[in-house]
Write a structure and sequence with these properties.
By secondary structure, this protein is α+β, with helices and mostly antiparallel strands. The chain is built from four helices and eleven strands. The strands form three sheets. It has a seven-stranded mixed beta sheet, covered by helices on one side. A two-stranded antiparallel sheet has the order 1-2.
């Protein structure tokens, strides 16, 4: 039996309800959560969210949705809130209208945070500047490997993991 077949079988047996995303060479398991679960988690940590459209429809680019958010992404937001003590307001979740790709908003890996001086100071003081992104946004990397991009009026955060939850 091929290694990939064994890994796939183990994933299905060991982790039911977990989505497997990736290519045949880099498959890994992520746990997807509903909008209701995400909002409950975020609310319990004192994290707020807003949208220009005042809605949560994933298919509407003016809404802020958390449908199909990765559990580790929601936990990463909680970790950032707890570690920084800053006010966090999410302005972008899993809605349509963001750049595509494996590690995208749509696939549950990214959140946008409204910018404030506390969050910016925390990121600049605690994370390592790594380089400018292709679009010119300065990027910072946390010790856990998550990437924080300064997009001018907000932080675009790529969560590979929960940040030490």
């Amino acid at each position: 039996m091929k290694l990939r077949s064994v890994l796939t079988a183990l994933t299905l047996v060991v982790a039911p309800g977990v989505a497997v995303i990736g290519t045949s060479t880099d498959a890994f398991a992520v746990t997807k959560i509903s909008h209701a679960t995400a909002t409950s988690m975020l609310r319990s940590s004192g994290i707020t969210w807003s949208s220009s459209g005042g809605c949560s429809d994933r298919n509407n680019p003016t809404c802020t949705s958390f449908e199909q958010l990765n559990l580790a992404t929601a936990q990463g937001a909680q970790t950032l809130k707890g570690a920084s003590g800053c006010t966090l307001n999410i302005t972008g979740g899993t809605k349509t209208g963001h750049a595509s790709g494996t590690y995208s908003h749509w696939n549950g890996y990214k959140l946008d945070y409204g910018k404030n001086s506390c969050v910016t100071a925390y990121i600049n003081s605690n994370f390592t500047y790594i380089r400018l992104r292709g679009d010119g946004a300065p990027q910072y990397k946390s010790a856990s490997g998550n990437i924080y991009a300064d997009e001018g009026n907000h932080w675009d955060v790529l969560y590979y993991n929960c940040g030490g939850c």
